[in-house]
Specification:
One of its GO terms (molecular function) is phenylalanine-tRNA ligase activity. The chain is of the alpha/beta class. The protein has a domain of 242 residues: 3-Layer(bba) Sandwich (Phenylalanyl-tRNA Synthetase, Chain B, domain 3), CATH 3.50.40. It is built from twelve helices and 24 strands. Strands 11, 12, 13, 14, 15, 18, 19, 20, 21, 22, 23 and 24 form a twelve-stranded mixed β-sheet that branches. The longest helix is centred in the C-terminal third of the chain and has 25 residues.
């Protein structure tokens, strides 16, 4: 009937829901928010939802929601819950008090109202590319005198719109770090951009600016140089005036260091954040691709992969801490492997291309970590006996965590596996990795894999957390100089006094058998869940 099945409304503990690419979905139906109060991730992209169809379902608050994706629905206006027409009183409680990421890309929005700032006060990422917006921030910001809007908004993406005016009130966003207004109709850039205290990345390409020198700069210079040019007044300022402005700037900075202790602390915290650089597929001469066979859909449908380079596991007990971290993630965020499973491989030992496939239990062979080569059905039998023995020794009534994830393959005619170019199985989720690609102290580059039979978003959330934890361990090794005889190697990696070099995350494409893209990680919207602890250079 064009709406969500009523059975979904009987799942009050549901935390993540994705329903995308369904042209028949025109409305959520009434009471979705009230029925699913635990939702933290809601992805409804590429459907046929309009503001009316969304309004009934999102009519109540979703207090736990952190990510909302409504991209590709042809929305011409926001639903009332997000501050659209018919919004409630300004003093009403926020409908989405924990919302961090809102994706409204690829719709038909012409304007946004100030109600969004009240509905989602903790928003950190707002994606608006591919709409018909004509002004920015436009009506997004409430009138002067109102409480500061979007105090945490660090990323604003409004590329490929019809924006002809970028207002000076953009400087009212105190946390803005990344601004993308590429391919719009801008003729000028406001000098107030230079007053955005945290702005580090800005994309103004594809706009026909009046100031031709500035237009050249936006196509070839770093953001810092562009902001300096705007601060100096742009075209018409001579070298003498620019030099004077530089002197005044240095005086201001000196005064700020004396007077603004809080500001200093912010800079220290920013500098101490972990760094990760994303290498895009287009920049990678030999990107890794994983091909997915149709059979996995009925066994373990979701997989996300990436490459992480620059890891150091040599010093001290770094490798042991790495393996302990992975075990803790399996226990916590992966819920004892029942919602997702992590696999980590030494990239140098991975023979590409890779195929995510299924094989019958009596045909699938793997050399599990610490064991000899064995058929999958025999391995499961061994593990089940070990789990039962463990249960008896500990005198528990319930089966152990080990036994719990073994049950995920019960009744399956085929088992999921990741196969390399030589036909060897290097991963058998959710059970084990292969000894063939085992990580060692000498490992520098990793191939990371997360699989799930629950949802794609869970894979991405787990991968986000995994990368964050590896970055934390890596910097800890560099800072502490663990173990004897490791200083020379660490200095060679980090340079003298520099313990904050970024790890490099290479995008990995997951495609179907015809080569059509299924997943690209990390995409622009990924790593948002850990953005408060991780600076991502894209």
């Amino acid at each position: 009937g064009g709406r969500l099945p009523e059975a979904l409304l009987a799942l009050p503990l549901l935390q993540s829901l994705e329903l995308s690419g369904c042209a028949a979905l025109r409305e959520l139906g009434p009471g979705v928010a009230a029925a699913l109060p635990a939702l933290h991730t809601l992805v409804l992209s590429r459907n046929a939802l309009g503001p009316a169809g969304l309004g009934a379902g999102l009519g109540g608050p979703l207090p736990a929601l952190r990510l909302l994706d409504l991209s590709g629905n042809g929305l011409e206006a926001l639903p009332a819950a997000l501050g659209g027409t018919g919004e409630g009183a300004g003093d009403a409680a926020p409908a989405f008090p924990q919302l961090r990421s809102l994706n409204l890309s690829a719709n038909r929005l012409r304007e946004l109202g100030p109600g969004l700032a009240r509905a989602a006060p903790q928003l950190q990422e707002l994606l608006l590319s591919g709409n018909r917006l004509r002004a920015l921030p436009g009506g997004l910001l409430p009138p002067a005198g109102s409480p500061a809007p979007f105090p945490l908004l660090s990323r604003l993406d409004a590329a490929d719109n019809e924006v002809a005016e970028l207002g000076a009130d953009i400087a009212a966003l105190p946390a803005l770090k990344s601004l993308d207004v590429a391919n719009n109709q801008l003729r000028e850039l406001p000098a107030a951009l230079a007053d955005c205290p945290r702005l580090k990345e800005a994309n103004f390409r594809g706009n026909q600016l009046k100031d031709k020198r500035l237009e050249k700069m936006v196509n070839g210079c770093q953001t810092k140089a562009i902001l300096e040019y705007l601060r100096a007044g742009g075209r018409g300022k001579g070298k003498v005036e620019s030099a004077r402005e530089d002197v005044r700037k240095k005086k201001r900075e000196k005064q700020q260091k004396k007077d603004n202790v809080d500001g200093e602390q912010d800079e220290v915290e920013e500098a101490s954040k972990l760094l990760v650089k994303v290498l895009h597929v287009s920049e990678n001469p030999a990107p890794l691709v994983v091909k997915v066979s149709p059979g996995v859909k009925d066994v373990r449908a979701f997989i996300v992969c990436c490459v992480l380079k620059g890891v150091n596991l040599k010093p001290g007990n770094a490798l042991k801490r790495f393996l302990t971290m992975q075990t803790k993630l399996h226990e916590d965020i992966c819920e004892k492997r029942t919602v997702a499973t992590i696999a980590t491989h030494d990239l140098q030992l991975v023979k590409a291309p890779l195929i995510y496939d299924v094989q019958p239990p009596d045909e699938l062979k793997i050399m599990p970590l610490g064991r000899k080569e064995i058929k999958a059905k025999d391995l499961l039998r061994q593990l089940q006996l070990e789990a039962e023995e463990q249960r008896k020794q500990k005198k528990r009534q319930n089966v152990s965590g080990l036994h719990k994830y073994l049950q995920l393959l019960d009744g399956k005619d085929n088992y999921p596996c990741l196969v390399d170019a030589e036909g060897a199985v290097i991963s058998f989720p959710p059970i084990t990795n292969s000894e063939k690609t085992k990580i060692r102290k000498e490992t520098r580059d990793l191939f990371l894999e997360v699989t799930s039979d629950t949802s794609l978003q869970i894979c991405k959330d787990v991968m986000d957390t995994l990368i964050l934890k590896i970055a934390e361990l890596n910097r800890s090794a560099l800072e502490n100089r663990e173990g004897s005889g490791s200083d020379v190697e660490l200095d060679a990696l980090s340079g003298p006094g520099n313990t904050n070099l970024p790890l490099v995350v290479e995008q990995v494409r997951v495609v179907d058998t015809d080569g059509n893209l299924k997943v690209l990680y990390p995409s622009k919207t990924d790593l948002a869940t850990v953005s408060s602890l991780l600076t991502v250079i894209r």
